[in-house]
Amino acid sequence: MGRSWGGVSLPNPYARASFLPPSVPDPLLKETNWDRFVEEEILQRREKEDSFRFHAASIKPLYVIDTPPPYPSGPWHIGAEAGYALIDRIARSFLVEITYVSVVGIVTGIALGIFLSYDVYLVSYADLAVWSIPYLRFFPIGVGAYFLTVLSTAAPAVQASRIPPAGALRTFE
Question: What pTM was computed for the model?
Fold first, then answer.
């Protein structure tokens, strides 16, 4: 089954690799959801019908779909799993870092607010009122401040994630 593309004949992708010595055995783990003969039949039908060939003389507008595979096309291997685990780890570490910074800022702000209000109380209102801390108001203020912190840091993080690593290493501002 000789295939060609642009006048260049392509090797049979299903033949045993010619660079492997005869002593190298076939893999012990066989695919269970893929059949070589079914795919060969589909490829022969495609060649016979000529339905997926590029026709340079056609007047139709070009329509190109370029989709590099986001997932491995065969059984999962440790490299793919490590890549997905790394993505998850980066996202979690980002969230942990945001949480740490925002909680430290919220606690520091509340503590400074308490100390400042106590100083104001001692200077101006010690004879007129009793000083108390409204603890129940701190919770909604803290939760609101946390969510505002996450929202305000999410947009720059998403923007930074769209920069290719090689581009980020080459340029600086």
Answer: 0.45
